[in-house]
Design goal:
The protein has about 425 residues and is an alpha/beta fold. The protein is about 35% helix and about 15% strand. The chain has a 7-stranded mixed beta sheet with strand order 4-10-9-8-7-5-6, with helices on both faces. Strands 1-2-3-13 form a 4-stranded mixed beta sheet. Strands 11-12-15-14 form a 4-stranded antiparallel beta sheet, with helices on one face. Helix 6 links the parallel strand 5 and strand 6. It is globular, with a radius of gyration of 21 Å. The two termini are about 30 Å apart. About 55% of the residues are buried.
Length: about 425
């Protein structure tokens, strides 16, 4: 393993992050478990950053990929593709967006980049509203709207970005307010902001912030924002790269917790739909999607082998009601972790929905982030046989828990017990 690590450092960028003091090579997986190069088994509570949505080595997806690879892997969007059309039809119908059009990309970054292109072209404005503590990808434009310093290596941008309050419920100047007052304060802040600028192209927001530590506003905030935005024709883009496909349990899309004023004008997706294959995309109303006046294609977006995987994965998800499983098992897991947290002074908050759960750590007796403890818990959990993630705003102090949506009650209890031991060791 040390040899592989040395080779990694010799040829790959210094800024390419690796978890763990002794980095882990994962060689194979099955169900909710993965194995490393030494043959040790781990319960996977992070799913390749929320990407292995159904299960590792899911036979239905493996079969679809294998059969498609035996026919043709790729031809580009210059030719008709039956699996691309079939998956686009399914996603358009599921999106909730009327007269929807779907464009496939290879990642969530590229999906958000495309949504920004569409919004700025449609609205003839390069001003974007984004949320504080947000993350939208690693391209030049998506970094320009990312409100999280740890993931923003440059301030240069083709866009003018204005950051809005509301993505983090339990921190910031409105944290002391109750939910209704919190929403009202954020809406007034938005109105004030709009009074000082030319009308922006769009607001882009994650219904639950992913890299930001699985934080979210009260239900209905973005519906209230939409009422204000609609008055000026400003678009709403829901970044569903991490929240889509039923992960939150209560809803198929994260935006549905804010759906009182209708669906977003655009939603972006990626990660879980491919179960590890590179699929991203944008869903938009036809008039927005069709606003470009120059040719465009996607060489690898919508290629046959990824579309076959996406169709098989989506079918499995729906037929086995994994959204319902995320709601049931995720609810049990959240309550179990809250019971653990009650006895530990360093756990500031356990939050989340379904199988998208954040555990925020703070220095005992303070409200200050505790990144050292987060790193220690990550290491201890791995030692106990559990893989989790981390994230957070001003400092990286939130543990991120997002297992495959097929997680069983027994596996949830197994993971909670390991995490309890890791947290107890840190505090």
């Amino acid at each position: 393993m040390n040899d592989l690590y040395d080779r990694h450092r010799a040829v790959l960028p210094d800024w390419l992050a690796l978890y763990y003091e002794d980095p882990l090579e994962i060689t194979h997986g099955e169900g909710r478990y993965v194995w490393d190069a030494e043959g040790r088994r781990y319960l996977d509570f992070f799913g390749g950053i929320l990407t292995t949505m159904t299960a590792h080595a899911l036979p239905e997806v493996t079969k679809a990929v294998s059969e498609q690879a035996g026919r043709i892997i790729h031809s580009s969007t210059l030719y008709l593709s039956r699996p691309m059309v079939e998956l686009a039809e399914r996603i358009a119908q599921l999106s909730g967006i009327p007269d929807a059009r779907v464009f496939f990309t290879t990642s969530g970054t590229e999906a958000n980049d495309t949504a920004l292109l569409l919004a700025t072209t449609y609205r003839r404005s390069n001003t974007i509203l984004a949320m504080r503590n947000s993350y939208h990808g690693r391209s030049f434009s998506s970094i320009g709207i990312t409100g999280n310093r740890g993931w923003s290596p440059t301030s240069l941008s083709p866009l003018q970005t204005l950051y809005v309050h509301g993505g983090v419920r339990s921190r910031g100047p409105f944290a002391h307010l109750d939910d209704d007052a919190f929403v009202a304060a954020c809406v007034e802040d938005l109105k004030d902001l709009l009074g000082h600028t030319r009308a922006p192209a769009a607001l882009i927001a994650e219904p639950i912030q992913g890299v930001g530590g699985f934080t979210s506003p009260p239900d209905g905030l973005y519906a209230a924002f939409r009422d204000v935005l609609r008055e000026q024709g400003i678009l709403w883009i829901a970044d569903e790269v991490q929240t889509g496909w039923g992960r939150t349990g209560e809803h198929f899309w994260g935006w549905q917790a804010h759906g009182r004023s209708g669906p977003p004008d655009m939603l972006t997706f990626a990660k879980g739909i491919g179960n590890g294959m590179s699929i991203g995309g944008v869903v938009a109303r036809a008039e927005i999607m069709n606003c470009l006046d120059a040719n465009s294609i996607s060489t690898f977006g919508g290629t046959q082998i990824t579309m076959a995987a996406g169709l098989a994965n989506l079918n499995y998800l729906v037929e086995h009601d994994l959204q319902g499983n995320a709601r049931r098992v995720g609810g049990l897991l959240i309550e179990r972790l809250r019971a653990v947290a009650a006895g530990l002074p360093g756990v500031r908050e356990v939050r989340g929905r379904g199988l998208m759960i954040g555990v925020e750590l703070a220095r005992p007796g303070t409200d200050e982030a505790d990144p050292r403890a987060a790193a220690a818990v990550l290491e201890a959990a791995r030692e106990g046989g559990l893989l989790i993630g981390k994230g957070g705003g001003h400092n990286t102090s939130a543990l991120r828990i997002a297992p495959p949506l097929s997680l069983t009650v027994a596996e949830a209890e197994e993971g909670a017990a390991i995490l309890e031991g890791a947290l107890s060791a840190a505090y």
